[in-house]
Design goal:
Chain lengths: ~290, ~325
């Protein structure tokens, strides 16, 4: 990585601020976390506090409180229309594209409320990437799709751009399939490849958080499995929040699960606990298939 | 059980004969269009045979138009048609795109509805109104304000020299642009509105600004529809008659300067049909009509090829 680029990289990639002492503490905390990985909540990357959401006059979310663990996969499950996607779409403030939607309360990203009017949305969305229900390749070539965000946010020499695109495609487990058709339109790939292309495009920016809004609902089971494996590989480096209709998917890949019902968070905790020993009656009914 | 099965079969049978009838009627209607097309083409060729025999291909490359000595050539009309259409497209396409983008991406819904309706209303104004307005209001305005300004600042270009009399090629082109603007912009608006929200969200989700999303997602996504919109405007501009006849000046000469008068195929036909008594004169006008017919056809074919290439480059239909 060149020195010029270092300046533009997010803060977490530099340790100037923390210094040596800070690094020691970090290492210690990290060690501490690993030790207790099984039964403690690691530090929260995003915290929703008393979050309410409205479509016009209609309230869709009610007093949501949720901590998204750093470097883990958090699944959001619940029946259709329960506010899963709505909740997720607050994190990168994509809901703001629509005039009649508004959020109240706080969403803390590294302790800072991202709902503040002063938040730089461009910076926020570089740090928080989003994958959608349907694959959304831009009408550009495979290469340009992945290079898109890099070109938007950074100025870099062509050779480095090439390297970053390749590494993003590799991380997205797509490189071998598309290395001969980097010049071909992204839309010409299969649905599953398109979705992994979108993941590559997003992680090329090295975001801190990856929001996935039912990323496998439009692709076939084999491709779904690939995306799930990918998510599991990416965790650690990325904090992942995945909205899913499939409880099996949540059980398979997530560390934590939040169960939403009618805009409220009914239960939140370690995935394996929630699926083996749900505390709330509604959660139990949902995961045993009695409704939803 | 058995009864209901036969019942179903019965209804299937009747629906099959209905289908046949339906197919026949629709096919007949579609064939009717083809017959009319072929009929127009054949009668144009038939009626222009005298001049085709007399002048051959030189008809297309001669700018002579002298009914008295029976010398006819289409060059000045072809030039006028292409030039006025080119000016119109050059002005109307970018403007329409900007208007459409504003209506879809930037304007508040209420503003968008009001402006959108106004533009649709503009499309419904008859062309004779544009012609009259062009001759009595716009041409004097051009002569007094626009042309002096153009010749002062761009007068070093051969296009903006000559008499500032208002009517002429430039005025005709601008009037044409005004006429096709509503068509192109309404179609483009619908095209942009069809770009899926999730595609735009994906752009914004990468941290792009509205301008970047518009440039990289909306326009690229809608390019095929935009070409279609332009073709619609082009088709209208190339054959527009009344408004052009009023303001183009009706000269049979070809000038580089856009201030000078000219004529287009349609305006010449409108002006001269009533006086065409001799068979050669009438035949020349008919052949002009044939040329216009073929020009439209060629433009259509070129656009289709272009669309195909764009489609291939984009990896298929996007909308």
């Amino acid at each position: 990585m060149t020195a010029a680029l270092d300046e533009k990289m997010p803060r977490r990639f530099t340790d100037e601020e923390t210094g040596e002492e800070g690094a020691k503490i970090e290492a210690f905390l990290h060690h501490f976390q690993e030790e207790d990985e099984e039964d403690t909540v690691s530090s929260a990357k995003i915290s929703a506090r008393n979050l309410n959401f409205y479509y016009g006059d209609q309230q869709a979310l009610f007093d949501n409180n949720l901590d998204i663990a750093e470097g883990r996969i958090t699944a959001i499950i619940g029946p259709s229309g329960c506010g899963k996607s709505t909740h997720l779409r607050i994190y990168n403030r994509i809901f703001q594209l629509y005039g009649n939607q508004r959020a109240e309360g706080e969403v803390l990203l590294d302790g800072k409320n991202l709902l503040d009017s002063g938040t730089n949305l461009i910076e926020l969305r570089r740090r928080i990437g989003m994958i959608f229900q349907k694959p959304t390749p831009f009408p550009l070539s495979v290469f340009e799709n992945v290079a898109y965000g890099l070109r938007l946010h950074f100025k870099m020499p062509k050779s480095e751009l090439n390297g970053r695109v390749e590494s993003a495609l590799k991380k997205a487990a797509l490189f071998d399939e598309v290395k001969d058709k980097l010049d071909k339109p992204g839309v010409a790939l299969s649905g599953g490849q398109q979705q992994r292309l979108c993941i590559a495009r997003t992680i090329a920016l090295e975001p801190e958080i990856l929001l996935m809004d039912e990323p496998t609902s439009a692709i076939d089971p084999v491709a779904t499995r690939k995306v799930e494996e990918l998510a599991e590989e990416l965790k650690g480096n990325f904090t992942i929040v995945i909205v899913t209709h499939s409880m099996q998917q949540a059980a398979r890949i997530s560390d934590f699960t939040a169960f939403f019902y009618k805009g409220k968070i009914i239960e939140y905790g370690l995935t394996k606990e929630m699926f083996t020993n749900p505390k709330q009656k509604q959660t139990e009914d949902y995961i045993t298939g009695r409704f939803g | 059980m058995e009864h209901s099965a036969t019942g179903r079969q019965q209804s299937w049978k009747t629906s099959r004969s209905m289908d046949l009838l339906f197919r026949g009627v629709t096919a007949a209607c579609a064939a009717f269009v083809l017959v009319i097309m072929a009929g127009i083409f054949v009668s144009l060729v038939w009626n222009s045979l005298p001049t085709i025999r007399e002048f051959g291909f030189s008809f297309l490359f001669s700018k002579a138009w002298d009914p008295v000595s029976q010398k006819f050539g289409a060059l000045s009309s072809i030039y006028g048609t292409l030039m006025s259409t080119a000016i119109a497209m050059l002005l109307a396409v970018p403007l329409s795109m900007v208007i459409a983008l504003f209506l879809v991406e930037l304007a508040p819904p209420k503003v968008s509805a009001v402006v959108g309706n106004a533009i649709e209303l503009l499309a419904a104004v008859p062309s004779i109104i544009y012609g009259m307005w062009g001759l009595f209001v716009f041409a004097p305005f051009m002569a007094d304000h626009v042309q002096p300004l153009l010749s002062e600042y761009l007068g070093w270009l051969p296009f903006f020299q000559g008499p500032e009399m208002g009517i002429g090629m430039l005025t005709a082109g601008i009037i044409l642009a005004l006429m096709i603007l509503p068509f192109i912009s309404t179609v483009m608006r619908d095209v942009f509105a069809m770009v899926p929200d999730v595609m735009k969200e994906a752009g914004y989700g990468m941290g792009a600004t509205t301008f970047e999303v518009t440039k990289d997602v909306t326009i690229r996504y809608g390019i095929q529809g935009m070409i279609g919109a332009c073709l619609l405007g082009l088709g209208r501009a190339i054959g527009e008659t009344m408004a052009i006849t009023f303001v183009i000046g009706n000269s049979s000469d070809i000038f580089i300067s856009l201030f000078e008068a000219g004529n287009s195929i349609a305006s010449r036909l409108a002006n001269e049909f009533a006086e065409a008594a001799e068979p050669m004169y009438l035949s020349a006008l008919m052949e002009l009509g044939l040329v216009l017919f073929l020009m439209t056809l060629i433009l259509q074919i070129i656009t289709q090829f272009w669309l195909k290439r764009v489609k291939k480059k984009m990896g298929g239909d996007l909308l």
